[in-house]
Amino acid sequence: MTEAEKLYATLKPVQEARGYEFNADTTLVMELLEGLLFNKRRYGYMSCPCRLASGDRGRDRDIECPCAYREQDVREYGSCYCGLYVSRQWNEGKIPRLYVPERRPVQETG
Q1: CB 64 within 8 Å of CB 46
Q2: 74 in Cβ contact with 68 (< 8 Å)
Q3: 37 with 7: CB under 8 angstroms?
């Protein structure tokens, strides 16, 4: 079992208990989990692989996965910004798959 598969197995029941599912596109999910693991090795924490982390954990706390924006993104769009976490309705194709805009304030990036 790869490191990403182990992370998947660890996170899946925890996040499902909170009402979130992993995207049904397992290829995408594994790529995102690899990105999280890469960032953990690089920075010491799992920052969102779809955003540019600064390397300062305090400054990046809002983009540690699951990010501070996930709940609102999934509530409004059925998916988080990077598409790792989604709602059941999104996975089942019952709601439109719309572009999720970046919520992180510009002053927080890079």
Answers
A1: yes
A2: no
A3: yes
In this structure, which amino acid lies at residue 91?
Answer: N
DSSP state of 85: E
The one-digit pLDDT tens for each residue of the chain (110 residues) are: 999 999 999 999 999 999 999 999 999 999 999 999 999 999 999 999 999 999 999 999 999 999 999 999 999 999 999 999 999 999 999 999 999 999 999 764 45
| DSSP single-letter state for residue 86 | E
Residue 39 exposure: Cα atoms within 13 Å on the Cβ side: 23
> Is the model's pTM score more than 0.70?
yes
Helix, strand or coil, per DSSP, at residue 104 = coil
The count of residues in the chain is: 110
